[in-house]
Amino acid sequence: MITVLDLMYFLSLILVFEVDGFEERLYCQNLCYIAKLFLDHKTLYFDVDPFLFYVLCEVDERGYHPVGYYSKEKYSDVGYNLACILTFPSHQRKGYGRFLIAFSYELSKKEEKVGSPEKPMSDLGQQAYIPYWTSTIVDFLLNQSGDSKSMSIIDIAKKTSIMTEDIIFALNTLGILKFVNGVYFIYAEQGHLEDLAKKHPVKEPRVDPSKLHWTPYITDVKKDKYSIKSKAVSVEADLNIAK
Amino acid sequence: MEIDEPDTPKINENDVLDVTTEKVPSSSTSQTNETTSSSKESTSDTTTMIANNNNTITISTPPRISIPNGKSSHTEPATQIGIGWTQQVIQKRTPSGPYGKAERYYINPENTKKFKSMLEVCQYLNNSGGDVSVVYNPSGNCSSPSKVASSCNNNNGTPNISNATTVGNGGGTNINLKVYTATATTTTSNNNSQHNSAINSANNSQSNSPRPPTQHVVATSGPGSGKSIDTHPFNKGSVIEVLYIKNKKQDDSSLDKKASEDDDNFTNWDNDDESISDWFNSDEEEEETKAKTDNNNNNNTTVAANNNNNSNNVYLADIIDRIPIFPTIDNLHPSQRFKYYIHYRNFNRRMDEWITQDRIISPPSVGNQKVRQIKRKEERRKREEEEKRERERILNEAALGLGGGTRRASIDGGGSSGIVPSSSTASLTGAVGGGTTSAAGRKRLRRTASSGIDSGSSFDESSDDPSSRSRRQSRSAGGVGVGSSSPKKAHAGSGALSIPQVSAINVVTTIEAQVLDEHEGMDEIALKEHEEVTKIKNVNTLELGKYQMDTWYYSPFPKEMFRDKDDVIDVLYVDEFSLNFFTRKEELLRYQKKALMLDRDNDGSGRRKDRRHPPGNEIYRCGNLSSEYILLGRGTLPNDYCS
């Protein structure tokens, strides 16, 4: 008689599965059909091959229950790191949407790329993304002060893998990007940043990069302009060169 | 779903209903019934008088006219009513799209009054003109007054009227109308046959009077209009006011439509939530049920009061579609026998839902009126805004022309701490055109010119021109000279990079417009098409694991899932682990049982699969993992594993 070990988990355990659209076509198509019930502008149903699906699961003694997912192109021409994202309504307001977004950027960091969600975004997409961007950037700026004397938006992009356009948008939303006499400044002093950090907190559940066991999907594309390496040199390097 | 309703009664019914809704705007439709009959009664009264006097004029409906292509209205003389009368057809445009309804008006010779229906015209003529009575004969086939009179009497359904035996053609139609409204057409497809039988029975009882040929002429919609006109009292495309209530089912399944937001950061949603929960906590729920009964009791005033109290939860909504409810309850008004698919104005389409009559607060006549008002207000606001902007621009230009004084007091405190503006951020200025840079240079020149006077003080100096000073102050500039004392300059004293608010016009604060469009990149036609196809949800509820959730949008499930084109799946059952979906619970359970036994999926791949997690690789695991391991035999899985 074959027996298996079944694990009893507490509910706070969450997992992410990576499903290849090519290998599990039926599963991914089903997922798309069901997701369409909650997404207005979604056109992907059959041709799931070029996509990877990341399924977020809650665990209890009965098994792994999908609570949300996002899909991602294996290779995106325009630097998208997320195509569709959905948390099922039964599990919304638990921060899973934010978790999946953070997760997508975490994967981008591993890929050493900057990424952005597929545009145009839905209304709920914006509601999830804008707080993520603002809180991440404020958090980053707050933990950055003192280290270096100057910093550019590209520096932020390199560290957070958020695309520069989105950073500019977030900075504008925060109201700390000023445009003076033809030059952009990020204007934020410590106290103001702390206020902003209170207003835009980084929420749980966070993604712990050390628990991510993943290597980037290998594509044949050699040159990728969204790779961080291809980005312009940072401010300090720039200054060094100038010297 | 285009609804084909019988021809002649359609028009008659519409006329009657229009009259009554005019009269009592916020009444429910059951009220309408009453007023309808009362108006009939009055007609019958006059006609009895006519029978005595024999001093009557019979008017009939003028032939229907159509709107020429490319025009929105058309006017023609209507000699059937009288000399000088005209009828006008206006194509209504609703913002929701193609469901514009053409409306017909009758205009009196003096061109002072507009009437929506022939009954109104009849009443008007009766009230205005001396001792001559006017009788409306809808068929257009003029018959003698006495005959019409008797037919009208018959309409009231009073059985003891003796002179009901001699009835002309016109009366025949009227009777048809009555029969039609009383015996409830059940399905839309049945309408025609029902109507026919109604006619037959009417004709039989009315000594086989033939169906007037003019009916057809009257009934067919104009060829120019292109589509049949929806004359249901709650016709598609019209706007009504609807009471928003949370679905009970949702509460039970711990699902909350409002809570469906991915993120609770947005306060307006939170507020919404609050208001709704408030509403549910208070005794207004009682009132709502009361309102329902009131609706049935035709108690108009309470409905209105209710309307006021719940104004937070009453929304304007477009009617998209309607389907009949089964089984039909006979003594209901036709409008109550349908349920309506509505779209709340200014809300996302995910809120669209099916509602029944009792949630409707006010009929289309009121709703459309409100929409028009809002539109007018919006237009006015827009105009005012434009004017304001124009004024500001002119003022601005004038101020710029006044010279450097306005633009001083800026760079003094700059560039000392905080995140220092680095030279490389200049790369960002690629976006800035050359014109701006030159402008900046110009400003700089001016600044240096006046900087001597500027330091250490606020603006008050050197304001040679009172208008320029007031201009500065109105910009809430507050003077960002070093050490100045205005409360607005909190940052200036702290020695941070002080961005002078004076140069506020230089500071770009938002670029939101380009990002926040959900439908970006879709042209209007594609968008319209998309909305047309996905207008009505084809699955109402989704059951996934232990949760049931209301769906938000249309999904193109394989057509084999549906019985016919317009079929709607009530509950879609989904297996959590393979995500296979079924329309019946038994199918799901059977599938799960089988899959468990085989321990592999039914996709024919033959691969062994763990039935308890999605396929693919686990790449992330985080959270509390208890150290308890429980040994379970494969067969000892609990029976309710699947459910």
Report on this model:
- The complex is a heterodimer of chains A (243) and B (643).
- Chain A is an alpha+beta fold and 243 residues long.
- Chain A has one domain (14-231): Aminopeptidase (3-Layer(aba) Sandwich), CATH 3.40.630.30.
- Chain A is 35% helix and 21% strand.
- Chain A has helices at residues 25-36, 96-111, 123-142, 153-160, 164-174, 190-199, 235-242, and strands at residues 3-7, 14-20, 51-60, 63-73, 80-82, 84-87, 116-117, 177-180, 183-186.
- Chain A has a 4-stranded antiparallel β-sheet, sandwiched between helices. In chain A, strands 5-7 form a two-stranded parallel ribbon.
- The model of chain A is unreliable at 1-11 (pLDDT under 50).
- Chain B is an alpha+beta fold.
- Among the domains of chain B are: 7-225, no CATH class; 540-549 and 568-641, no CATH class.
- Chain B contains 18 helices and 17 strands.
- Chain B has a 5-stranded antiparallel β-sheet.
- In chain B, helix 1 crosses helix 2 (29-53) and helix 10 (284-297) packs antiparallel against helix 11.
- The relative contact order of chain B is 0.08.
- The model of chain B is unreliable at 1-53, 140-227, 248-309, 403-504, 506-515 and 626-643 (pLDDT under 50).
- Classes of the chains: A alpha+beta (243), B alpha+beta (643).
- At the A-B interface, strand 1, strand 2, helix 1, strand 3 and strand 4 of A face helix 13, strand 12, strand 13, strand 16 and strand 17 of B.
- Strand 1 of chain A pairs antiparallel with strand 17 (629-633) of chain B.
